[in-house]
Amino acid sequence: MRATKSLFLAAAAGLLLLSGCNKPDGEELKKQALDALNKQQEMKTYTFKGEADLAIGQPPAPGADNPIASTLTGMFTSGKLAWEGTASTDPLRVEADLKATPAGGSTALSLPLQLQDKKLFLSIPFLSKPGESYSLDLDQLASLTGRSAEDTEQQLKLAGSAGGKLTATLLDGFDADWFRPGPEADKESAMRTIRVEVTDKNAQKATDALHAKWPELIEQLRTSGLLTDKQAEAAKTGGSSVQVKAPGLLELHVDEQGFVRKERIELKFAVTKPDGTNAERTVTYDQAFDAINAEPSFKKEPPKQVFPLETVLRQLMRTK
Question: Which domains does the chain have, with CATH numbers?
Answer without folding.
Answer: 26-317 (2.50.20.20)
